[in-house]
DNA sequence: TTAGTGATATCC
DNA sequence: GATATCACTAAA
């Protein structure tokens, strides 16, 4: 029986949660009971107000308020008016941390992942803990993790642009 | 390489 | 109210 990840898993530091999430399985249950499954193959950590790539670096606002909140909460963000990007909040309360689900085994790209799983803005503020619609399972799979600089944040400056907070499964 | 897209934040 | 910005994708 697969283990379902709970609050304690997400409450740790984003830099611990992000690599641990790689290889886990996202399970999305639709209205009609259909289950969509996809193994996570890539995540990125966003951590703290000093992280220029993190939304919270520009201050605590209505949008980023969630980042400061409860671990295990889903933060969905509409990017470029087209793509829903899904994050999960990690770390202790009042620390703006999150992990972005960057891509799954079957779909590369965060926009495609959320499209496949039928995630949209209505999931903003939902939680992975005790949620019937979406959860994350651990089937014991432990891939080797490759780290790399995050992508898409050229504006964040040389240091934050190059820090290796991107975690990729090598598929083994 | 570039266009498209819309919510959010910031500037009047 | 108006403009600038963006953790992207698809088309060319």
Overview features:
DNA-binding; single chain; 172 residues; globular; 9 strands; nine-stranded antiparallel sheet; alpha+beta
How is this structure best described in words?
By secondary structure, the chain is of the alpha+beta class. It has a single domain, classed as Methylpurine-DNA glycosylase (MPG) (3-methyladenine DNA Glycosylase, Chain A, Roll). It is 14% helix and 31% strand. It has 4 helices and 9 strands. Strands 1, 2, 3, 4, 5, 6, 7, 8 and 9 form a 9-stranded antiparallel beta sheet that branches. β5 and β6 form a beta hairpin. The chain binds a DNA duplex (12 and 12 nucleotides) through β4, β5 and α3.
A few lines on this structure:
This protein is of the alpha+beta class. Helix content is 14%, strand content 31%.
Q: What's the layout of helices and strands?
A:
Elements lengths: L2 E2 L2 H4 L3 H8 L3 E5 L5 E13 L26 E6 L3 E7 L7 E8 L5 H7 L17 E5 L6 E4 L9 H5 L3 E4 L3
Antiparallel strand pairs: 1-7, 2-3, 2-7, 3-6, 3-9, 4-5, 5-6, 8-9
The structure holds a DNA duplex (12 and 12 nucleotides).
């Amino acid at each position: 029986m697969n283990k379902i990840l709970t609050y304690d898993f997400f409450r740790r530091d984003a830099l611990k949660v992000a690599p641990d999430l790689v290889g886990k399985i996202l399970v999305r249950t639709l209205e009609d009971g259909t289950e969509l499954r996809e193994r996570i193959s890539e995540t990125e950590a966003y951590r703290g107000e000093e992280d220029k790539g993190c939304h919270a670096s520009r201050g605590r606002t209505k949008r980023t308020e969630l980042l400061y909140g409860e671990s295990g909460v889903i933060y969905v963000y509409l990017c470029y008016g087209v793509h829903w990007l899904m994050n999960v909040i990690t770390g202790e309360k009042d620390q703006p941390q999150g992990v972005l689900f960057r891509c799954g085994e079957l779909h590369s790209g965060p926009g495609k992942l959320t499209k496949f799983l039928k995630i949209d803005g209505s999931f903003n503020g939902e939680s992975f803990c005790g949620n019937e619609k979406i959860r994350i399972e651990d089937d014991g799979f432990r891939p080797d993790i490759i780290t790399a600089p995050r992508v898409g944040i050229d504006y964040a400056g040389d240091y934050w642009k190059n820090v290796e907070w991107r975690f990729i499964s090598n598929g083994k």
